[in-house]
Amino acid sequence: MSFQCRQFYLKDDRCAMKVSTDSLLLGSWVAVAPTDSCILDVGTGCGILALMMAQRTSAQAKIQAIEIEAGAAEQAQENIDASPWPAKIQCAQADCFVWQPQTPMDLIVSNPPYFNEQLASQQEQRRIARQGSQPLSAWLARMATWLSPQGRIAWVLPLNMETRLEVPAELSLLRRCEVTTVVGKPAKLVLLEWTKASVECVNESLSIRTAGGDYTREFRQLTNAFYLAGEHQNSSSSLF
């Protein structure tokens, strides 16, 4: 499988988890500051979030991507090498519970393996990608130790898993966005952004499609820098 964004192209046939709506939304929604110079993508898969961060940041920014599964890490590196920003991104095959960054991170993005309540997959590669080796709360606690004083962590999760997540005491929720597939339907996804600073959370909402099946204006505006089908709704590259 492959996916064409405006400025880069992704192959994901060797990745257990394919290009998804979740990552496209998170990479478009997360706030990226001009001063963000050190950015980390944890569990990069085919590299989509790392590449989205490369597109959104200055030439001086450095992006690190880590991925535990060898085939996915190799494919992410190939996608990075074929992109306009191979010098901005470093990709490593690594377990986030072993790996340690050399410098504090200004922004950490992740589409974490949140299928840990489902039956274990018989395919080990897919099991690790979907379920991980540690609970999500341990992932978040680990990432919190890597942040710079003003750093942020941004995740995407199923809405029903948010309340089960144990958030480290040093993190405050900065932004929260509930996502519905169709206007008027119950939300199924939530986009979350935490920071170490003491802040009041900004609550948002987003619907991907109208009741008639068209992309909403808000979705097109959010993803326009990346998603070709956001403008051309009959595109064969649609994820939805």
TrEMBL record:
It is found in: Cytoplasm. It comes from the Bacteria. It holds the Pfam family MTS. CDD domains: AdoMet_MTases. The keyword Cytoplasm applies. Belongs to the methyltransferase superfamily. tRNA (adenine-N(6)-)-methyltransferase family. PANTHER family: TRNA1(VAL) (ADENINE(37)-N6)-METHYLTRANSFERASE. This is tRNA1(Val) (adenine(37)-N6)-methyltransferase. It comes from Pseudidiomarina aestuarii.
